[in-house]
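[PROTEIN RECORD]
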Amino acid sequence: MAALSVASLSASEADTVSRKVIHMLGADFRPSYVFPTHDFFRGDNMAGRKISNTFSGHLKYGFKFSPATETGRRYPYAVQGIGVAYNTFGNVTEVSNPLAVYVFQTSRIANITPCLSFDYEWNFGASFGWKKFDDISNPQNRVVGSKINAYINLGFLLDWRITPHTHLRTGVGVSHYSNGNTRYPNSGVNTVGASVGVTHFFCNEQEPNRTQPSALYLKVPFGKHISYDLIVYGATRKKGIWPEGENPLMVPGSFGIIGLNFNPLYNFNKHFRAGVSLDFQYDESANIMKYVANDYIPSNPEELKFYRPAFKESFSAGLSVRAEIVMPIFSINLGIGKNFFCRGDDTNAFYQTFVLKTDITKNFFIHTGYQLYDFRYPNNLMVGLGVRFNAKR
């Protein structure tokens, strides 16, 4: 593609081309409804009140690549960055007011008018400062088992450009807080609510017409191809068991998980790639209920005796269908699969994965994700590294 001629551009366009990134600051306010997934939210708490609402305030710094870069010309509306959020659930004693720190990315889905668009935004990070379950000081909060929990949010927004550099954004979103079974209890906190916020870009750029982009955003050719992702990940988890006719019990200690994925992906265009993945995982807690010693279930879980399952009981291999949304720096990979080599009920199931890939270089990325079984049972976190073969710009 021919290089842009700065002399042929307006003063504002020339200023944009001279810089690699365009900075942004934003603020959001999000009132939300808390799903009553546990008796604790329905009023079975020390306060004796329902916990049905939450409110959060967000401050964000982001940037987008200028059209001086190939990435900026491929993704002219993608903004990524970091955010912090203060949350309140109206119950400081048992829940606290956790603080979230996260990375985010937002971009356009469709243009509606020259000044209005339909956008999306995701947040992925951690929330700190929760009041966790404690037998003595917080016995009724059987929802949150750790002070630090993963935070995931997905929102859909209407973006109104009220000035060339200032945008008003309103919409709806869903959020999930969980520790990925690293601690128990882990019922998770789920919310849905509204969002209203404002963003401001620090540049002299006159944003191109949404229906007729300027010469700054000329299309960059894309060659369809197959890339190959090889990923190694690990995690730890807690394990609960449900003996027949008995109350649930925690197995003492933590258990290790290690996994490997080989994922060929066909790159259809700059935004989307899909394929299949060969997935291997070893979970030393899998099927442990079968190995309780002497069929004795004590009332105190610390007295629970068990044998470690054999390797074939803890190892599984499966195939999954993967779809990946590709954006600058980050990619979202979603998968649905079934283990074809497994032993026992814990691994003989459909599994679902949600993965965030964060590019370090063109060929290496950080792999952070979460796995479910049968669309409802949380299984484990996945934190690892990946290498991409046949990566093409």
In short: The radius of gyration is 24 Å. Confidence is low (pLDDT under 50) at residues 1-12, 208-212. The chain has two domains: 10-216, 225-389.
